[in-house]
Amino acid sequence: MQTVIRVEKLSKTFHHNKALHAVDLTVQQGEMVALLGPSGSGKSTLLRHLSGLITCDKTSESHVELLGNTVQRAGRLASDIRKSRAQTGYIFQQFNLVNRLTVLENVLIGALGSTPFWRTCLRWFAPKQKQEALQALTRVGMAHFAHQRVSTLSGGQQQRVAIARALMQKAKIILADEPIASLDPESARIVMETLRDINQKDGITIVVTLHQVDYALRYCERIVALRQGHVFFDGASHQFDNDRFDHLYRSINRVE
Ligand code: ADP
Ligand code: MG
């Protein structure tokens, strides 16, 4: 099996607040991993290091590698970070789509990479690419919304469009930061099932941060649990001692 994410001794300090303490994490191709932990435990910080949105401590021996390419090391971003970014799809709690564009146009953006000229490029898409975008929307059950503006969709529907965009991008990895935190239970279920479906059928590696233990146990085979910037559990979800951590999780984030 191929290692697609390798994090070694990742440390991050914000002012005097140590958010991550020498975190190690290795993810193999095709895994769907829940990054679990209460609010403030460092989940988003870890995910943002994977995409190079923030840099680790300069003084640390931290090293982050995605798909065999270094993303950052000891506080410095790699110069060829675009290579790994191009193959990584991002999904955030706050539906990061372009509201004024249609669903189809948002998915087509996935085929553009990080060009600053995407507005112009959108007009020049070949019918083949539009067809591909429609197929991606079909995969997530959103094809009949293709020509609607994103602003008219519910939160759960927007997350499914974001997943279709990652499919269009041909992402090898999806990093999803609290994708269901703003959703009602039914929409959360559909989004998690959609993520699991593309993980199983397309072999896309998924790391999803969650603060609800129930969803992690139900949808992910592996759980990496963080507490105050330390990994305190990394293993199969069926080995996750729910009772032991019950107090920690349920008292902070109860699933309705
Ligand atoms: P989680 O996603 O698990 O809720 P975060 O990764 O957002 O946790 O935060 C971990 C810790 O780092 C928290 O103590 C938070 O206050 C701190 N933190 C995160 N981002 C910043 C930032 N940009 N500036 C200062 N402190 C931050
Ligand atoms: Mg967070």
From TrEMBL:
Membrane topology: Peripheral membrane protein
Main localization, broad class: membrane
InterPro entries from the UniProt entry: AAA+_ATPase, ABC_transporter-like_ATP-bd, ABC_transporter-like_CS, ABC_transpr_PhnC, MetN_ABC_transporter-like, P-loop_NTPase
Keywords, comma-separated and alphabetical: ATP-binding, Cell membrane, Membrane, Nucleotide-binding, Translocase, Transport
Pfam entry (one): ABC_tran
Stored CDD domains: ABC_PhnC_transporter
Keyword Transport attached: yes
Localization terms from the record: Cell inner membrane
Gene Ontology MF, one: ATP binding
All copies of domain ABC transporter, residue ranges: 5-253
Keyword Transmembrane in annotation: no
NCBIfam families attached to this UniProt entry: ABC_phnC, PRK09984.1
PANTHER family: AMINO ACID IMPORT ATP-BINDING PROTEIN, PHOSPHONATES IMPORT ATP-BINDING PROTEIN PHNC
Name listed for the protein in its UniProt record: Phosphonate ABC transporter ATP-binding protein
Organism, scientific name: Leclercia tamurae
